[in-house]
Automatic annotation (TrEMBL):
Residues 355-462 form the HTH LytTR-type domain. This is LytTr DNA-binding domain-containing protein. The keyword DNA-binding applies. InterPro entries: GAF-like_dom_sf (IPR029016), LytR-like (IPR046947), LytTR_DNA-bd_dom (IPR007492). Keywords: DNA-binding. GO terms for molecular function: DNA binding; phosphorelay response regulator activity. It holds the Pfam family LytTR. It comes from the Bacteria.
């Protein structure tokens, strides 16, 4: 969202939205007149989170979160930004809140009278406003979305909050895109000022710049640690961030992980997803251990893309100015503390059963077999389905890739994710390029990038 962009949704009148809300709460799926992003949020609240639409206040945030130094930087930055606009927001009768990644409010500023009203529904520090706790709202829905959100009146899932209008934007990790915090502006029985969009965009942009700088510095430190460890050693090695994404790997390790070899790494902020849930689990376990003991080194075994048997690995954390930035991972050797069985062998991720798409103002729930392939168009993702082309409910092909990587889908190009069971033919061109002829209505021809060709051949056994 640009600095001057307004949050101005194209939706039905409040009466139309309220009527749709009543139908949806009663179990119907007719959401005519409701914006798709709101309808999708309602679906999450009703079907997945099972939030009571008649609760009158948000619950106490009972979960304590261990914030990393990076999180603390974000909270400090957003607190400063919130305080800087608090006077203008207060003059408009509004309040500003900052939440953490769980939806727990950690700070509040603004109009004293509005804050008193907000306290009646627990719109106050130390209460939880995630969608799973309080339904559709500016803070909770911003955590679920990859864009700024505006929730007005009856668009809120809980009827007790229908007198509020709120706008929120999530600040996300520069690499993993996981939410860290939300900045939100709310007003009781009134519209928000038109400048709200600019306020939120400015605060989020400046905070994201800080996070990108930290990601670049952390990546640079990982690359340096990698080269130092590689000196005089022939053991296959990779450097991964705290989320298990690959920053740099040698030729052997890149083949094991199914990512490009990068020696040296040109851009330390570029990360590759090896699509190995066990590696992600190992990296996260290592991060927890390193937080307790910076000198910790551990080992476990995991499956790679080219092996029928698990490969032993050794993990050692890497720090920058006392902050954990990732891990070095050696393949083929076992050294250090053995991972406990529960942590070292993460359970397989639950397989998704549906893909959610949108058509007009309705959600379309697709079985995996109905989706032939997904194609990115900027931030939008379009699905080629048995019902024709449909827009995916979530933005970004990376997110869909992460959800479907273990469900028979494969990323074959930066713009394409394909259902392996819907490939009809594989065409090889004179220079070795591969194209897939898909089993859809148009027999779409999907290009395969050279980087993804080895993974495709392994998946299809060709």
């Amino acid at each position: 969202m640009s600095g001057g962009q307004r949050l101005d949704p194209a939706s039905g009148s409040p009466g139309t939205v309220y009527t749709a809300w009543e139908r949806f709460v009663d179990g119907e799926d007719d959401v005519r007149g409701v914006r798709p992003e709101v309808a999708i949020s309602w679906h999450r609240c009703r079907e997945h989170y099972r939030v009571d639409p008649y609760i009158t206040e948000a619950p106490v945030a009972v979960v304590e979160v261990d914030h990393t130094p990076e999180h603390d930087v974000v909270f400090a930055e957003l607190g400063f930004r919130a305080a800087s606009v608090a006077h203008e927001v207060s003059n408009a009768g509004g309040i500003v809140t900052v939440t953490d990644a769980t939806g727990r409010i950690v700070g509040e500023w603004g109009d004293k009278a509005t804050r008193a009203i907000a306290a009646d529904c627990n719109l106050a520090p130390w209460y939880c406003w995630s969608e799973s706790a309080a339904g559709t709202n500016g803070m909770g829905t911003a955590l679920e979305a990859h864009a700024p959100v505006l929730i007005r009146g009856p668009e809120h899932w809980c009827r007790a909050f229908h007198d509020w209008t709120c706008a929120g934007v999530a600040v996300r990790h520069a690499v993993t895109r996981e939410p860290i915090a939300v900045l939100n502006i709310s007003r009781y029985r009134g519209e928000l000022p038109t400048a709200v969009g600019a306020w939120l965009a400015n605060a989020a942009t400046k905070t994201q710049c800080t996070l990108r700088r930290r990601a670049r510095d952390g990546g640079t430190e990982l690359v340096a640690a990698y080269h130092q460890a590689r000196a005089g050693s022939a053991v296959p090695l990779a450097a991964v961030d705290t989320a298990g994404k690959v920053v740099i790997a040698d030729d052997t390790t890149s083949a094991l992980l199914g990512v490009p070899a990068a020696t040296p790494a040109i851009d330390p902020t570029v990360r590759w997803n090896p699509r190995l849930p066990e590696l992600i689990g190992a990296a996260r376990y290592a991060s927890r251990q390193a937080a307790r003991n910076p000198a910790w080194t551990g080992s476990t075994r995991l499956f790679t893309h080219l092996a029928d048997e698990p490969t032993p690995i050794t993990i050692r954390p890497v720090f920058l100015s006392g902050d954990l930035v990732g891990n070095l991972v050696w393949f083929g050797i076992s050294d250090g503390e053995q991972f406990p069985g529960a942590e070292g062998a993460p359970h397989p991720r639950a397989q998704p059963r549906r893909v959610v798409a949108t058509r007009d103002n309705r959600m379309v729930l697709l079985s995996l077999s109905e989706v032939c392939f997904a194609e990115s168009d900027g931030n939008d993702v379009w699905l080629s389905t048995d019902q024709g082309p449909l827009r995916a409910a979530h933005q970004g092909l990376d997110k869909l890739d992460g959800e479907l990587a273990d469900a028979g889908f494969l990323r074959v190009h930066r713009r394409y994710l394909v259902n392996l069971s819907r490939i009809r033919e594989v065409e090889r061109r004179l220079k070795g390029e591969l194209f897939l002829i898909m089993d859809d209505r148009t027999n779409k021809m999907v290009p395969v990038s050279r980087r993804n060709a080895p993974a495709l051949r392994r998946a299809l056994d060709i």
